[in-house]
Amino acid sequence: MTAPPRWRVVGADGSGIVVVDLDEDLRETGRTRGDVVDLAIAASAAPATTRWVWSDTARWYPQLLAHGVTAARGHDLRLCHAILRDSAWTPEASDLRGAVVWDAATAEPSDGAPALFDLDDGEAGAVGVPNGVDAAVDEFRRQRAALAGSTDPARLELLLAAESAGALIAAELHAAGVPWSREVHEGILEETLGGRPAAGELAPRVRELGAVVRAALGDPAASLDSQPKLLRSLHRVGVLAESTSRWELARFDHPAIGPLLQYKKLTRLANANGWTWLDEWARGGRFRPVYVPGGVVTGRWASSGGGALQLPRQLRPAVRADPGWTLIVADVAQLEPRVLAAMSGDRALAEAARGRDLYDGLVERGIVDSRQEAKIAMLGAMYGATTGDSGRLVPALRRAYPRAMGLVDEAARLGAEGGVVTTWLGRTSPGVSDGWRDAQGRAGAPDATEADRARARRSAGDRGRFTRNFVVQGTAAEWALAWLGSLRTELAQLPAVDAASGGEATASGPVFSRRAHLCFFLHDEIIVHAPLGQADLVAEAVRRSAARATQILFGAFPLDFPLDLRIAPDATKD
DNA sequence: AATACAAGCGCG
DNA sequence: AAAGCGCGCTTGTATT
User: Fold this and answer.
1) Digit-coded pLDDT (tens) for A354-411
2) CA of A110 to C1' of B4 (A)
3) How far apart are CA A130 and CA A150, in angstroms?
4) Nucleotides of C under 7 A from a protein CB
5) Amino acid whose CA is nearest the C1' of B10
6) Quick check: A305 CB within 7 A of strand C?
7) Taking the CA of residue A180 as centre, how many other CA atoms within 13 Å lie in the half-sphere pointing to its CB?
8) Contacts 24+ apart (CB under 8 A), A514-517
């Protein structure tokens, strides 16, 4: 047990914010009454090692950013509470688990109960966690104690820091926004859909295709947007599909199918990312999605609003740097298989992947016959495929890389038995529900029916595939957070451009309009918006950060995480 | 009229 | 082609 840290409180009462410097032995110096602006002024003079401890980054940080203040380091009590509460590495943290008010945000009422908290600005993430300084101090103390009492404080502390840095970055990404070209987007829409329709009307290409499909179906009134009706229309012309999904329809040979698939593609674009989306989400030359750090149980981020995680590749050309600026677009090649190799210590798999495309490495070693097969096999191994091509190819991987495959197989076994699994840094999967356990129990009873047993087998299998994937997806998310956090620190050290030197301010807000900054993140990919003159420096920083993330998580394990990196004014993916 | 759910498809 | 994991969003339909 380490001694409880002492801290300096410069936060405002009611703000839920405490500023802590764990690197120095600071005594509490008192609190100031005041608003966030006072706090921002006070904190802007704080040393770079200052760690902001607050109830909920999403609740407080946007206001600081709006006042031009960034936080170098953070500790998000809400997110860290969830990690420590669930981690299998903190078995003794019962007082922390008892502090249920800190669970409020993750257990949002679904029964329509009115919110119990007073929201003045409707900020996302501002849910029922306590906002007082005393509550924050108490919770922080509990978290430090839980950490100190854990079976691996070093890794868990790394995770808490990474999660909290992610929370800072999520707020910053929203504040900065993705530079978005309305012109390019509209050009794509017009070329594909044929011009903006009046409200309530269909775009020309959609209307034309609809007519073609109806003609081919021999039914001028056929409904193409209602699945049951469409299915009946298809049956009438002999297309005996069981669903209207693209995959199934594509197997039938009928003149209606081609235009119908095209119709579905176009309506999807028009509905999800058409002119309405553009008006709502790309105002002022910026797409500002709401990121939700820790929104997925595995530790991945979720998003809410704008569909940040689903931007169709088709629209990526609309991501366009401002004049005088450029984009550094980087993604990690085969992040999850590499993570699996590293966390399992599988040197054979690492050897196959080092310095090259991992899938090519498998082909070269004769494990599978083609890159495509390698990819299918590897994904199948991590997702728990049992049938089809994927299931067929997995055994070859299991023979070649027993150590890596053993790790995911063991995770699946534990999950199927109702156990929990844990990522490399200590994030633990949720436990089973009572219903799940009951179903397993019923299947074992003497009077169990075949249906009972089938249901239990199925739910056990489902859960096994979930925990199998959890360890890999979750550790990959940790690597990505370490990459992001490290990169963020590096970018903060680049000089700001000033107007005198020819650099142009952008629409990215008071903090980011003159600095290279992250503007997009999606699981294994980042985009940095940077002044033209800093592109190469940023690219180096991006690569260095990836290497640093690998070193932070996996030390000297001999495996690299190569990046596909482009410097370009737009984010088109090839 | 409001809400819940399933299907389908976009992303990794 | 879909399969095996994790998401968000829109639509139409069913339910209340």
Assistant:
1) 999 999 999 999 999 999 999 999 999 999 999 888 889 999 999 999 999 999 999 9
2) 11
3) 25
4) 1-14
5) A310
6) yes
7) 26
8) A515/A491, A516/A491, A517/A172, A517/A176, A517/A491
Residue A38 has pLDDT above 70, yes or no: no
CA A117 – CA A59 distance, rounded (Å)? 12
Measured distance CA(A188)–CA(A546) in Å, rounded: 34
pLDDT, greater one: A160 or A137: A160
Which amino acid belongs to residue A515?
Answer: R
Backbone φ and ψ of A169, nearest 5°: -65, -40
Footprint of strand B on the protein (CB under 7 A): A 110, 112, 227, 243-247, 264-265, 268, 272, 309-314, 331, 473, 522-525, 573
- Rounded to 5°, angle at Cα A275 from A271 and A281: 95
How far is the C-alpha of A182 from the C-alpha of A267, rounded, in Å? Answer: 20
- Subset of residues 207-266 in chain A with CB less than 7 angstroms from any atom in strand C: 223, 225-229, 245-248, 250
**pTM of the complete model:** 0.91
Domains and CATH numbers, chain A: 17-151 (no CATH), 182-278 (1.20.1060), 289-335+477-568 (3.30.70.370), 336-475 (1.10.150)
Tens-digit pLDDT profile for residues A140-185 = 889 989 999 999 999 999 999 999 999 999 999 999 999 999 999 9
A197: Cβ under 7 Å from strand C? Answer: no
